[in-house]
Amino acid sequence: KMAYILGISCYYHDAAACIIKDGKLVAAAEEERFTRIKHDTSFPINAINYCLQEAGIKGKDLDYVGFYEKPLLKFERLLSQHLEMFPRSLYPFCKAMPSWLNEKLRVPGTIRKKVGYRGEILFVDHHLAHAASSYLVSPFKEAAILTVDGVGEWATTTMGHARGNEITIEKEIQFPHSLGLLYSAMTSHLGFKVNDHEYKVMGLAPYGKPAYYDKLKKVIKVNEDGSYRLDMSYFVYHYKLTMPSGKFIREFGPIRKRESKVEQRH
């Protein structure tokens, strides 16, 4: 019997699906390709239907469905971070709740209803999913693993190794310390859209001068073993919907207004 596995990611940015038949990738697609909504976050039912069609099967024929993170663990982190920062965190907490209660915590029900699948749903640790997506399709039988992201459930950066089909995460840095979120804070400060315009920041970087290099050293402390910590007084993303703090703005200048002229200092 053939083994079919469907992989799904959604509700954050660029929802997508892929299908694997006996360990080989058959089809993969982003939901935005069907809906024409850039970075579509919704449950990727069009992408899923396309993948099933390419594999020539129905949802009930799947052996497993994998989801790209552990929603309950992520929800725990969200509650923990908002409780720690209460009452300052009340507004973003109220803003985040509807999508959690209506969508993000109901993933199994949504999959059963929309895909017609009754079997086991595997929730994969987010950074493990990142590691697997590169290692398992690589030609290597053994590899060192490094994942650097905004934030998964708690982890933001992980280190480990892989051998055969086993991936072991040995060390991790946890939220709120995150290179990805530092990048997002910079993107936001420069008047660009987070989780969308990071490539513009990267494209503009070669035209700048390293004028802020020493100031940035105050924002992030890198230890001898390569681990790091952020000075959180420069950020407010752990309790607000914005990212740079007043201190950050005093240090690096005013936030650029969206679509305004890009100056040399930017």
The gross shape turns out to be globular
Strand content: 15-25%
Which segments are poorly predicted (pLDDT under 50) over 5 or more consecutive residues? none
Structural class: alpha+beta
* Radius of gyration, taken over Cα atoms and rounded to an integer in Å: 20 Å
Largest sheet, described in full? 5 strands, mixed
Number of strands: 10
Helix content: 25-40%
The quaternary organization reads as: single chain
H/E series, N to C?
Answer: EEEHHEHHHEHEEEHHHEEH
- Provide mean pLDDT, rounded: 94
Order the strands across the largest sheet as they lie in space.
3-2-1-4-5
**Tally the helices: what do you get?**
10
Q: Give the termini separation.
A: 58 Å
Question: What does the model show?
Answer:
With 266 residues, the protein is α+β, with helices and mostly antiparallel strands. The strands form 3 sheets. A 5-stranded mixed β-sheet has the order 3-2-1-4-5. The chain has a 3-stranded antiparallel β-sheet with strand order 6-7-8, with helices on one face. The relative contact order is 0.10. A hairpin with a 2-residue loop joins β7 and β8. α3 packs antiparallel against α4 (90-102). The protein contains 10 helices and 10 strands. It has helices at 32-35, 45-55, 71-84, 90-102, 107-115, 126-135, 179-189, 198-204, 213-219, 246-252, and strands at 4-9, 16-21, 24-30, 64-67, 121-123, 142-148, 155-163, 166-174, 220-222, 228-230.
Draw up the topology in text.
Layout: E1 4-9, E2 16-21, E3 24-30, H1 32-35, H2 45-55, E4 64-67, H3 71-84, H4 90-102, H5 107-115, E5 121-123, H6 126-135, E6 142-148, E7 155-163, E8 166-174, H7 179-189, H8 198-204, H9 213-219, E9 220-222, E10 228-230, H10 246-252
Helix pairs in contact: 3-4
